Amino acid sequence: MSEIIINAVLKAKPGKGELLRTELLNIIEASRAEDSCLQYTLHESVENNDTFVFYERWKDEKALATHIETDHYKHYRQQTEQLLEKRDVYRLQIITP
């Protein structure tokens, strides 16, 4: 199996940006501690501080599936559900290094 990359673009509802930012920061440590996590980086838009982007690299599809079933991921999804205006997730593969 090959490495899988996730690029998740998250936009907060009006007035919910700081709350969303806090919840996003809360998931990083536990996610990075997972055995098959290669990279888990959070970014914030310089144009709109209510927009965040996760860049994740996982060993393979199985690793990503395991991540989605963890308690910390389920907690994150529950905590952010009411804060999000939009959530776009892209599953990517590397074409060129």
Automatic annotation (TrEMBL):
The keyword Transmembrane does not apply. InterPro entries: ABM_dom, AI-2_Isomerase_LsrG, Dimeric_a/b-barrel. Pfam families: ABM. Keywords: Monooxygenase, Oxidoreductase. One of its GO terms (molecular function) is monooxygenase activity. PROSITE patterns: ABM (PS51725). SUPFAM superfamilies: Dimeric alpha+beta barrel. The keyword Oxidoreductase applies. This is Antibiotic biosynthesis monooxygenase. It comes from Metabacillus sediminilitoris.
